[in-house]
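Deliverable D5.2: sample structural annotation.
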Amino acid sequence: MTEDQRQVLFENTARAIDGASQATIERHIFNCTQADPAYGEGVRKAIEALQASKA
């Protein structure tokens, strides 16, 4: 997977989980991190960026 494809994956994941409770989001990030630490970190950053853009 290219870096651009990874970024699209992170952003799609962030949009898909948007609106869930913070506990659910944290659990999802934890699960992503268990699969691959870079995936968890990318998802976390994408979620933070999405939330910041709404503020």
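Annotation notes: The two ends are 31 Å apart (CA to CA). The first helix runs from residue 3 to 17.
The annotation will be released with the project's public dataset once the embargo ends.
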